[in-house]
Amino acid sequence: MASVTSIYSRALADVVFDRKLDVVKVLQEAQALTALFADSKDLREVWEAPSIPGEQKRRLLDAIASRQGISREVRNFIAVLIDHQRISFLAPIVKQFEVELGERMGFAEAQITSAKVMSQDARKELQSQVEKMIGKKIRAKYELDASLLGGAVVRVGSTIYDGSVKGQLERIREQLVSGAS
């Protein structure tokens, strides 16, 4: 699945940048169609059914695109997924497309988990520090985990920066155990 999502997300990103399309608009359109596809069992059954001719599937897509004001490029992209029987991968493709757009624009996705709600100033300061460490602008998503006791854990890709009290206590415990042996 990873190669399918990568191939199609890169292809859509190539179209967006080659044609200088509005990145935010294309992403919103793709996300809207993904939500519609996820929420409608009937739509999924039609678009995924091998017994229904592609022409009928594309007519349904055209009606949806017209009603929702979907651009020709996004409509065509969905049509390609339908025609190549890849529509079931729509959600992960769009998620990877969002990551691909961010990377091409010099952003990295960061997941920041803290023990308590951070003030705007604290968020800005932490984001600034992370951006300096990785050399890229970040788009942060925040969540809470009271078990951290204090501080924060930042995940950027597969790299984890653990500045939590829980993490510090765990490192101290490991030092004590390894020193005692």
Q: Largest sheet, if any?
A: 4 strands, mixed
**Class based on secondary structure composition and strand pairing:** alpha+beta
Strand line-up across the major sheet = 2-1-3-4
Compute the number of helices. Answer: 8
Q: Count the strands?
A: 4
CATH architecture of the largest domain: Orthogonal Bundle
Q: What is the rounded Rg?
A: 22 Å
CATH fold title of the largest domain: Peroxidase, domain 1
SSE topology:
Blueprint: H1 2-18, H2 23-39, H3 41-48, H4 54-68, H5 72-83, H6 90-104, E1 107-114, H7 120-134, E2 137-144, E3 152-156, E4 159-162, H8 165-180
Helix pairs in contact: 1-5, 1-6, 2-6, 4-5
Describe this structure in words.
It is a single chain. Helices cover 64% and strands 14% of the residues. The chain has 181 residues and is of the alpha+beta class. The chain folds into two domains: 102 residues, Peroxidase, domain 1 (Orthogonal Bundle); 74 residues, no CATH class. It has a four-stranded mixed β-sheet with strand order 2-1-3-4, sandwiched between helices. The model has no long low-confidence stretch (mean pLDDT 91).
